[in-house]
């Protein structure tokens, strides 16, 4: 099977080498497309690779009927409609680490250029002026740098700033005193950062909570003569408020790499001599571009070939060692979900998943998600996948409960899936037998030993002599060969089940006749 990949922003040729080297990937590079152009051709692609220019809107995702993955060669995913991607089952991956150094170095370059007015002085000299009075700067040593957002880039900026003998004071809701102490910086509130800093640099993502976090009110709280840097995202700083604060003389300078609208349309801020800027160049180094393109290429290859993403954005990611431990149970969890959805027959209202054994030491969320995927596929079809399974469950008001216990009742690990419908409960349990693969070991209260693959038939019947024979004869009449059969009963002469594996699908006419067999209550074909 070959996959069509569209690269719609400039990506490093060295970085996409892994994609070019993979046999089943056909790559189209078409950068600078308008949204209309993208909308007209996106349907043919399985993967879309972008940087920050391409706007991956809801419409693009809706039109991208074959899209399975969107790869962002960089960090910020604010140009991608994540909700739409999740709803349509498209996995979004990014490259969170590849450009950290470059962005941090660019921030420091901007900080030093700002402090020493280097771009302004250079521009003046280019005009053939020898002006040594207008460009008197300030030293960094002994000043305070305020950092808002101490993630990957913020932390790298902090380390480098200490090298310039700056005092660093940082605000990040996830920053602990302990980590700040280790880094030799001060952990502060946003207000403390605003009050204390001579230079303020922002390094948060653009989120609802961070949009215009630096606004008129924030500027009021700052020291007179403060200088501002934004190498994160346009919109974290309110550009109009910044303009006012510079005109008021509160802000002595600003260095901007990113803007509320890109490409920049309104140049009013740049008309101010206090403002220096670059056109979103934080990640524009040979090294960063190669790194991020390699990272997304690997994830795109993994996902399209059925593997696990390393940097998923709309799926929680787990440490590699945890994934390795729970991955063998992926197939079982989905099969149990599909099985129980078949035998439940009615719409599922509640899903209870019980994990027992040493698996419970780990985060089993991907298994729960897989089970839900198996259940919902039965009702909603093949478009339900890992990414949108819990989204659809939520939309359908299906409650999902996960319980863990270390008691295993004889199995190293046991996964039990119980669903509630308006008619009551249906339950199935399964395990992974060392060297033998997956098994269904319980259906409702009956113990069985069934390989969860192929065409299965669950028959509920009365425990009477001849019932099994009658089923066997009828299937033989229809040329349906029975590969395996398991029988379980509650009491002698009471309710019982037959679990059959057959060599072909049970047709409607076979089903009708099976249901007519004496002592048979119910027949459910299950395709796994
Ligand atoms: N200019 C460029 O070319 C360039 C390059 C790389 C990254 N970026 C941007 O830099 C930003 C940071 O990237 P990163 O890799 O460090 O991300 P990150 O996720 O490692 O760090 C972001 C930090 O912001 C913190 N945060 C979130 N909300 C906050 C709030 N309300 N107040 C304070 N802190 C908050 C988070 O806790 C986190 O620690 C992103 O927006 C990214 O897109 C820009
Ligand atoms: O979020 C990022 O990674 C940076 O803003 C880089 O964006 P770019 O890939 O468009 O240079």
UniProtKB/TrEMBL annotation:
Catalytic reactions on record: (R)-2-hydroxyglutarate + NAD(+) = 2-oxoglutarate + NADH + H(+); (2R)-3-phosphoglycerate + NAD(+) = 3-phosphooxypyruvate + NADH + H(+)
Entry's family note: Belongs to the D-isomer specific 2-hydroxyacid dehydrogenase family.
InterPro entries per UniProt: ACT-like_dom_sf, ACT_dom, ASB_dom_sf, D-isomer_2_OHA_DH_cat_dom, D-isomer_DH_CS, D-isomer_DH_CS1, D-isomer_DH_NAD-bd, NAD(P)-bd_dom_sf
Entries under Pfam families matching the protein: 2-Hacid_dh (PF00389), 2-Hacid_dh_C (PF02826), ACT (PF01842), PGDH_inter (PF19304)
Known EC number: 1.1.1.95
SUPFAM superfamilies: ACT-like (SSF55021), Formate/glycerate dehydrogenase catalytic domain-like (SSF52283), NAD(P)-binding Rossmann-fold domains (SSF51735), Serine metabolism enzymes domain (SSF143548)
One MF annotation (Gene Ontology) recorded for this entry: NAD binding
Pathway stated in the Swiss-Prot or TrEMBL entry: Amino-acid biosynthesis; L-serine biosynthesis; L-serine from 3-phospho-D-glycerate: step 1/3
Domain ACT: residue ranges: 456-528
Origin: domain of life: Bacteria
Keywords for the protein's UniProt record, in alphabetical order: Amino-acid biosynthesis, NAD, Oxidoreductase, Serine biosynthesis
CDD domains the UniProt entry points to: ACT_3PGDH-xct, PGDH_4
Function of the molecule: Catalyzes the reversible oxidation of 3-phospho-D-glycerate to 3-phosphonooxypyruvate, the first step of the phosphorylated L-serine biosynthesis pathway. Also catalyzes the reversible oxidation of 2-hydroxyglutarate to 2-oxoglutarate.
Protein's name in the database: D-3-phosphoglycerate dehydrogenase
GO biological process, alphabetically ordered: L-serine biosynthetic process
NCBIfam families hit by this protein: PGDH (TIGR01327)
């Amino acid at each position: 099977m070959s996959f069509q990949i569209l690269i719609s922003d400039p990506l490093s040729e060295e970085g996409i080498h892994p994609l070019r080297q993979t046999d089943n990937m056909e790559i189209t590079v078409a950068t600078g497309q308008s949204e209309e152009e993208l909308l007209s051709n996106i349907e043919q692609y399985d993967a879309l690779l972008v940087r920050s220019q391409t706007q991956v809107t809801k419409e693009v995702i809706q039109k991208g009927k074959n899209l399975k993955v969107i790869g962002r060669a960089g960090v910020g995913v604010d140009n991608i409609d994540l909700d739409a991607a999740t709803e349509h089952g498209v996995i979004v991956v990014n490259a969170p680490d590849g450009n950290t150094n470059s962005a941090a170095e660019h921030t420091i370059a901007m900080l030093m250029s700002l402090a020493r007015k280097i771009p302004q002085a250079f521009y003046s000299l280019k005009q053939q002026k020898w002006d040594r009075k207008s460009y008197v700067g300030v030293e960094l040593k002994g000043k305070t740098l305020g950092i808002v957002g101490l993630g990957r880039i913020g932390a790298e900026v902090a380390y480098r700033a200490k090298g310039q003998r700056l005092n660093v004071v940082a605000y990040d809701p996830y920053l602990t005193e302990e980590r700040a102490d280790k880094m030799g910086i001060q952990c502060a509130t946003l207000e403390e950062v605003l009050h204390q800093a001579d230079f303020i640099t922002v390094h948060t993502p653009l989120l609802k909570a961070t949009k215009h976090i630096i606004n008129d009110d924030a500027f009021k709280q700052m020291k007179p003569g403060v200088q501002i840097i934004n190498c994160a995202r346009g919109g974290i700083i309110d550009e109009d408020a910044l303009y006012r604060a510079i005109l008021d003389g509160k802000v002595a300078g600003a260095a901007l790499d990113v803007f509320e609208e890109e490409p920049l349309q309104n140049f009013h801020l740049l008309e101010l001599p206090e403002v220096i800027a670059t056109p979103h160049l934080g990640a524009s180094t040979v090294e960063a571009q190669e790194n991020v393109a390699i990272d997304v290429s690997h994830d795109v290859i993994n996902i399209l070939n059925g593997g696990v993403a390393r940097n998923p954005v709309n799926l929680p990611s787990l440490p590699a060692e945890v994934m390795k431990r729970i991955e063998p149970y992926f197939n079982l969890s989905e099969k149990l979900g599909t099985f129980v959805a078949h035998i439940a027959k009615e719409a599922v209202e509640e899903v209870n998943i019980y994990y027992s054994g040493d698996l419970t030491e780990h985060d089993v969320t991907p298994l729960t998600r897989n089970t839900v995927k198996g259940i919902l596929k039965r009702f909603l079809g093949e478009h339900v996948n890992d990414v949108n399974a819990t989204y659809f469950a939520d939309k359908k008001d299906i409650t999902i409960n996960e319980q863990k216990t270390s008691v295993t009742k004889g199995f190293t690990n046991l996964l039990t899936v119980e669903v509630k419908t308006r008619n009551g409960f249906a339950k199935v349990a399964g395990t992974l037998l060392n060297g033998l693969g997956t098994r269904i070991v319980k259906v409702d209260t009956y113990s069985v030993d069934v390989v969860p693959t192929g065409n299965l038939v669950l028959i509920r019947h009365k425990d009477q002599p001849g019932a099994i024979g009658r089923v066997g004869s009828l299937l033989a009449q229809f040329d349906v060969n029975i590969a395996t059969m398991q029988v379980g009963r509650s009491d002698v002469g009471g309710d019982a089940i037959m679990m059959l594996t057959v060599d072909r699908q049970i047709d409607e006419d076979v089903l009708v006749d099976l249901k007519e067999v004496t002592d048979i209550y119910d027949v459910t074909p299950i395709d796994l």
